[in-house]
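[Meeting: bench + compute handoff]

Bench side (C.D.) handed over the final construct sequence. Compute side (W.E.) agreed to return the predicted structure before the next meeting so the bench team could plan truncations. Sequence as handed over:
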Amino acid sequence: MSLTREDRSDIAELVSLHGHLVDDGRLDRLEELFTPDVVYDLSDFGREPLSGVAAVREAAAAMGAAGPVAHHVTNIVVTPSADGRARVRSKGLGVRADGTCGSVTYDDTAVRTADGWRISHRTVTRRGAPGGGPAGSH
């Protein structure tokens, strides 16, 4: 399967929209990002994967003031899959209210739906070790 330039642009915009919606507190719009049955894998943070948009919304709301005040996504790489999906890898930076920040890698599966591209699976991996290893690997 190949992706058009429009597909690639739409997918990159989809990934970028995440930070805007979360930072603006627009958790009511997460259906614009995720399929209803999305799996949001936070295993690297010692949490069970979340299943469904409602679970993602509840987890984001529960973070409250402990969550980042700003999410920034960079280095978006979109790779088509033979099954019609797209694999998307990006880097995320989260800035906290105290000025500290953390880095993650997002590994997403994007699928085309009747409403446009949506993320059906997201794995979030902590970054932090020099040389590109996961946090805690040094």
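W.E. noted at the follow-up: The chain has a mean pLDDT of 92. C.D. will use this when planning the next construct.
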